[in-house]
Amino acid sequence: QVQLVESGGGLVQAGGSLRLSCAASGRTISTYAMGWFRQTPGNEREFVAALAAISWSADRTGYASSVKGRFTISRSSDKNTVYLQMNSLKPEDTVIYYCAADPRGYYRTRIADFGSWGQGTQVTVSS
User: Fold this and answer.
1) How sure is the predictor about 92, in pLDDT bands with cuts at 50, 70 and 90?
2) Nearest-CA neighbor of 95 among 58, 57, 43, 59?
3) What would you report as the CA-atom Rg of the chain, rounded to the nearest whole angstrom?
4) Residue 4 near residue 117 (C-beta atoms within 8 A)
5) What b/e string do you get for 20-46 counting C-beta neighbours within 10 Å, with b at 16 or more?
6) Distances in Å between the alpha carbon of 102 and those of 22, 47, 54, 116?
7) What is the mean pLDDT of residues 31-59?
8) Paired sense of beta strands 121-126 and 95-102, if any
9) What is the arithmetic mean of pLDDT over 94-101?
């Protein structure tokens, strides 16, 4: 089982940037499908971005329409870490962000397809 720890959240002004990190331990995530999701209290967790394993689909990535063009998911195999670079942040991006992983490395976006989750990191964007 892989363990995931998110970091990098915080307070930023609208239009600013943050980079979230998801550090993995216990397994090498280069063979894992990875995802970022977000959730506000009382709402369902929603898909943000996904990244296939290196061996699948040539590192295919995908994004929710609400973040496409502003957010970028990437992986560092050396650091066993996945990142979410968030630019042009908006107040509506204020939520808790979660990292997820699954050993079935093909590209996926559904919450139910991910078996391992981090504890989340809060992002707050002020207007």
Assistant:
1) very high
2) 43
3) 13
4) yes
5) bbbbbeebebbebbbbbbbeeeeeebe
6) 14, 15, 13, 6
7) 89
8) antiparallel
9) 97
Identity of the residue numbered 97: Y
In order of 23, 28, 95, the CA distances from 113 in angstroms are 20, 18, 22
Of 48, 36, 58, whose CA–CA distance to 105 is shortest?
A: 58
